[in-house]
Amino acid sequence: MKRNTINPQWDDPYLIDVPSLPQGSWEDNGQQLKLSVPKEFSFSENMKYLSNAPNECLFHIKDHRIYKAVPIGQETPIIEISAEHENVITIRFFGNTTPSRQEVRAAVAGYVSEWFDLETDLRPFYDLAKNDLLLHRAVSEFYGLRNVGIPDLFEALCWGIIGQQINLAFAYTLKRRLVENFGRSVELDGEQYWIFPSPHKIAALAVSDLAVLQMTTKKSEYLIGVAQLIAEGKLTKKRLLATGDYKKAEKMLVSIRGIGPWTANYVLMRCLRIPSAFPIDDVGLHNAIKHLMGTEQKPTKEEILQLSSTWTNWESYATFYLWRFLY
DNA sequence: AGCCAGGACGGTA
DNA sequence: TACCGTCATGGC
């Protein structure tokens, strides 16, 4: 008999911070969901991006399909995301994890819609990019790529903090250790699906609990501090968005210990989807520009501001597209 | 072996 | 405001 087994530490009140409904059109026949996607969307282009994450532990990819456990309230459906045609995304529930309640299925649709940023109209970006020194090649090579995001705020903040000042491969290793030590997993058909630890769980840890994972002491402190803020309800997506202004949201984040300009903009870009969020200190961005410009030295901040002066309100998409040149 | 990595902090001038 | 030493470890 195949059953889902869930780790003991499952008395976990945290609800991931995601929309309860997709904004766009979608269908639900009780067994599977279909999301309509904009014309400027390419499933395979987004899959190429996701396939490149080395050592990713929160989803896996097989035969051009994504498999992932999505925690919604007290349920943890395991979904398969596929696209027979480029213009529609199909979500199937795995095994016996089909949520019986319609609102849970809707939340899953909302999660996927947000993950792939299906609501943004990319046409203005493509228009401005056509004549842009750095972007014209990016938008033709990666046409249909979305700003694939991190819908949950806590996960996005942790990923940003973990990634500070270390190479990406090591960052993935640290994330995996964090998830496998303090997250929970659902097992189905011999596969294990990991779910990111809750803020409550991390908030209750001691610095040494994280430091043994080879996180620096400071990173351990930062993660616990952010977890406490979120667990106490003091830091939410809603509050950040309620500032009504990108710069105010950035200030709110930067005031938190461990979150500097890079992390703040990274999270505003990948989680809150602020179009003008711009992690200008990002080494990856610097390397991409260096690569495209064929220069030996990294661009200065002034040069980047010059090159990006026409990206107004599309800085986050520009950054995301330029990252694609790095792998 | 040595430089670099999807930075941030705390102190100093 | 602007700069600098420090944190600390793995990847290549």
List keywords for this structure.
DNA-binding, 15 helices, 9 strands, alpha+beta, 327 residues, globular, Endonuclease III, domain 1
Describe the secondary structure blueprint for this structure.
Layout: E1 5-6, E2 26-28, E3 32-36, H1 43-51, E4 60-62, E5 65-69, E6 78-82, E7 88-93, H2 102-115, H3 123-130, H4 135-141, H5 153-162, H6 168-182, E8 184-188, E9 191-195, H7 199-203, H8 207-211, H9 217-231, H10 237-242, H11 246-254, H12 261-270, H13 283-293, H14 301-307, H15 315-323
Antiparallel strand pairs: 1-8, 2-3, 3-7, 4-5, 5-6, 6-7, 8-9
Helix pairs in contact: 5-9, 5-12, 11-12
The chain binds a DNA duplex (13 and 12 nucleotides) through residues 160-161, 163-171, 173-174, 214-219, 222, 257-263, 266, 279, 281-287, 323, 326.
Family: Belongs to the alkylbase DNA glycosidase AlkA family.
Keywords: DNA damage, DNA repair, Hydrolase
EC number: 3.2.2.21
Description:
The chain is an alpha+beta fold. The chain folds into two domains: 18-119, 2-Layer Sandwich (TATA-Binding Protein), CATH 3.30.310.20; 153-183 and 197-326, Orthogonal Bundle (Endonuclease III, domain 1), CATH 1.10.340. 43% of the residues lie in helices and 12% in strands. The chain contains 15 helices and nine strands. It has helices at 43-51, 102-115, 123-130, 135-141, 153-162, 168-182, 199-203, 207-211, 217-231, 237-242, 246-254, 261-270, 283-293, 301-307, 315-323; strands spanning 5-6, 26-28, 32-36, 60-62, 65-69, 78-82, 88-93, 184-188, 191-195. A hairpin with a 5-residue loop joins β6 (78-82) and β7. α5 runs antiparallel to α9 (217-231), α5 (153-162) packs antiparallel against α12 and α11 (246-254) crosses α12 (261-270). Residues 1-11 have low confidence and may be disordered. The protein binds a DNA duplex (13 and 12 nucleotides) through α6, α9, α12 and α13. It comes from Paenibacillus profundus. Belongs to the alkylbase DNA glycosidase AlkA family.
